[in-house]
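Researcher: Next sequence.
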Amino acid sequence: MDTGRFTALIDSFLRSSGWNTVAAGRAINEEMTGLRIFDAPLTGVASADDPAFRDLRRESVVGPHFLLPEEWLPGARAVVSFFLPFSENVRRANRADRDEPAPEWLHGRIEGQECIDRLSAFLVERLLEEGFDAVAPSVDERFRSCTTTNTVFLDGDGAPLPVSFNSNWSERHVAYVCGLGSFGLSKGLITPKGVAGRFGSVVTSAPIPPDNVVASAVYENCTMCGACVRNCPVGAITIEKGKDHVRCADFLTLTKEKYRPRYGCGKCQTGVPCECGIPPR
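Model: Next structure:
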């Protein structure tokens, strides 16, 4: 098993499983039926004992509640992170309206995440069939996250840690360690295939050779051009302070009320120079 084989497995799942297209029974409207959500994947592998994972436990990064690969899976040897870029149809539709999420984007956010969850389970199953242990942390029962008020991550005295919009396994930070890109002003990860897409990962005992080249700077791929600042419909991003998670979350709550059971925005990921690649300096 190597990175190429893993990429081929993901690509095969996207093309043949049916989860990468919007089914008629779930389409917001007739035009959405058959919509392809994701393009071909980008994959990166890091050794499970890569010291960069321990760096994620610093309070200034994710925090001490971040679980290391070996805590998710004793005997872990590799972490495989994958990025699924949204298709051009999804991205183009979301560029058209600066204020409201496109139906295509709403499907990408909700049905797209369901596709990733199914894909993660598929990858774990294949690794188990080949005699290796594996776990996909984000769909594991031990996965925990919080939004504005933290009630799940506690310090040694049992008091809540001073964190918000956090989890014990951050797909974006794991992707950063696995060499898939660097962060942008909007807090998305800018990969060679851009920022518009979704991440997933698997921790495994399989001896997959690492191929990660971690970005030399946290914002290496971001030019700080301010396009995401201008695109944000509620002013949740500034050049000076980056992304205001509370303001962003409040807007997403409004979209959930309007488009229930779906929600989304994505204006900071579309119509920007980093939408589908690393922008030139």
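Model: Residues 3-259 form one domain. The chain has one domain: 3-259.
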